[in-house]
Every structure is written in C-alpha cells, then in structure tokens.
Design a protein that fits this description.
Order of helices and strands: HEEEEEEEEEEEEEEHEEHEEHHHEEEH
Protein name: Reticulon 4 receptor
Strand content: 5-15%
InterPro entries: Leu-rich_rpt, Leu-rich_rpt_typical-subtyp, LRR_dom_sf, LRR_TM_domain-containing
GO molecular function: ganglioside GM1 binding; ganglioside GT1b binding
Keywords: Leucine-rich repeat, Repeat, Signal
Structural class: alpha/beta
Amino acid sequence: MSRAGSRLLILVLCLNFPREAEPCPGACVCYSEPKITISCQQQGLGAIPAEIPVQTQRIFLHSNRIALIKSTSFTSCRNMSILWIHSNNISLIEPGAFYGLDKLEELDLSDNMNLRSISPSTFQGLVHLHTLHLDRCGLLELSTGLFRGLFSLQYLYLQDNNLQNLLDDTFLDLANLTYLFLHGNRIKSLSENVFRGLINLDRLLLHQNRVSMVHHRAFHDLGKVMTVYLFNNNLTVLSGETMAPLVSLQYLRLNGNQWLCDCQARSLWDWFKQFKGSSSELECHLPAHLAGRDLKRLQSSDLEGCIDPSSQIRTSVFSTKTRSGKLATAEPPLNPQDSSRKCCQPEMDKSFIYEAKAKAGPSSHSSRASPNNPLKDKENMAKTKYQVEMDSSKNSSNKQINDSPFGTFPSAVDPPLTNLKPEFLGPIEPSTVPTKKRQGCSRKNKSRSQCRIAQPTQSATGDGEGLLQVPLAQVALCPLRC
C-alpha cells in the first residue's frame, strides 16, 4: 500500500471511531437497548440529577423524594419520549419545565399528593403526548387552558384527586382523547359544555363523586362513548334528554344513587325502553312504596304523579354513610330543571297529599329472615364499595420496567373492554323492560314493594299496599288515566 493510501485509511478510521459515551449520573443505571434509558428509581433522590445525557430517550425517576421540577431540569433532553416521575414529593412544577420536549409521548406525574395545582402553561408544546397521568396528585382544580394544544392525547388519568368543579371547555382541544378517568373526586355537577370537544371519547368514568346535577346537554359531543360510569353519586333524577346523545353507549352503571321514581323519572324510563346496551339496576329511593325496586322494571302507572320528597322520610336500606360519617337523609331533588316540574299538580300545600303505609310481605325468592329483623336492617345498611382499577401496572407505585412500550397503550389499537377486570364491567344486566297491559285504574292502587337483603345483586319481592289520599279538589285537576 502506498504512503498516500495509508494516510487515507488512518483518516477514515479516525472519523469512524466512536465518541466517548456520556457519563451516567450517579445512583442511576444507564443502558442503550432497546432505547437509550436512564433508570434512577428508588434511590432516595431529593432532586433531579444534573447532566442527563443529551441522547436519552427514556428517564425513570419514580419512587424518590424529589420535591421540585425546575424549568432547567430537562432542557437538554430533546429526544425524550417517556418520563416517569411518579411517587415523589413534587409540590411545584416551574413554568417551562417541559418546554421543548416535543417528542415526549408519555408523562407520568401520578402519586404526588402535594402537587395540588399546575400552571396553565405547563404542558404547552407537548404535541406528541398521548398519555398523561395526573391521578392522586391532590389537585384542587384544573386551570383554564391546562390541556390546550394536546391534540395527540388519548389517555388522561385524573382520578382520586380533590376536584370539585370542572370548567366549560376544559377538554376542548382533546379531539383524540379516548379514555377520561375522573372517578374518586368531589365533582358536584356537570355543566352544558364540560365535555365539549371530546368527539372521539370511548370511556367516561365519573363514579364515586358527588354529582347531583347533570345539565341536559352535558353529553352533546359524546356520540362515540361506549362506557359511562356514574354509580355512587348523589343523583336523584336524570332526564332521557340528557342520555339521548349517547347513541353508541353499550355499558352504563347508575347504581348507588338515590333515585326518585315518580313523574320526573318518566323520561329516563322511556329512554331505557329503547336502550340496547347493558346497565346496572337503578334502585328507587322514593316514594317509600317503591323503595328498592328497579326503575327500569316499573310499570308506567307507577310513575304517575309527583311526590313531595320533603314529606317522605326514609332511613332504610338506601341510607348510607356520607364521607363525613353521617347518615344521608332524604332530600329534595337537586336538579333545578326537573324539580320545578310538578306534573299535573298545582302549586299549593302538598304536605297532606301522600301518606305511604308499607306492609312488609313475605319473600317469594328467599328464606332469609324478615327485613324487620333489626340485625338484618343493620346488615342492609352497609353498602358495597365499588373499586375500579385499570389492569395496568402504571397505576401503582410499584411500576415495573421492561423492554415493552412501558405501560403505554398502542396509538393505533385501543385495548378491548373485555381485558378489564370483571368488577370493572359488572354487575350489569339487560335493560329491556317487559311491557305489560295496564289494568284499570282505581283510587286505591296496589303496588309491589321489595325488601333488600345482604347481597346487593339479589332481591326479594313481597306484596304491599300504598294508600294514596287525594283531595277531591285535586281529582278534577289530575284525572286518572286508565
């Protein structure tokens, strides 16, 4: 080989010689396959390590004692696609902390109970983010514009916080969102435009809140929703008009509410007659002679007339301890639109109209002791606590790292509903209501009363009578229809 050729070979070898790898931060483990990763979990770190290698794609900082995310913590990590920083003591995220991370796809900030509030500009620019965990962060509110520009977001976890109100258009930019988890908060009402923009939402979980009022247009953009959970709230009425936009709905749970089964329930009862999906029972709380009955299985005649809830006192199997430890008592419907309707009754003193006298009949389906047994009453007071946990390792503090997509859901194919735990889907039952020819009307209407037993999925029916005393002046205004 000539001298010129040797020099050329040496030059090529020098150009292709690998540069010295950047040092791995102390207390961390670094590896490059399948992606460049820094793993620093469970190291007792009080701050985010400095000098994170520029080429890092995945950073795991969970289960430490980090209290602050500075605006300069990740300025060099422009290639980062996954950041887990859950299960720390984070109380402040400085503005701009995630600025420039336009390749970030998954961000997990869950289990930071002292976070409480997040600046509206925190997530700006994260145009490829598809999974965001903000569950169990002690959040008191969602700032206006917090999710603005997150057009790729598909999974949003907000459960188990202290949220009391959701502002209109909070999720306006999230047109690709498919799963929205809001259960385990303190949300009291759902306004007209609270879910505006969620045109591709598939699953909406709102159970175990304090929802007492749902605007009749609250679900107007949710035409693709297949699952709605509203169990264990404070609902007493819900109109069929409210449910009408949910044309793709297949799974509905409304149990654990104190339903008012009178004329205000008729539109919901009518909606259930055409609903082809599956739902839980809707156990009536009032009137007393229908207590324990499933609203869907009532006859049309059962829903005639409107009661005055203040004159109906019930502390039976539907009375359950509130979060403050006190027993819930019967209250008037909290929906201002529905409660204003008095059907055919004029505005007058109605305290004498209804007097309900219920007889406990023998059970036709169970040989258990009578519900009048005080020990059984005490047992029936207990309510089953429904727990819904996603079958995903991301939602626990002991998250496992492997070479899979690290808890992310594939962007193309959503996980099927059948993969969820059985308790997530059940108990559900067909919502079809058997039709029955109405019998002739009489002033003394007979009805069925149902006695709840310890198992919430079983029921025992018995015969009973409810005495309805209507003044003659009311008969002319409210003729009986046969």
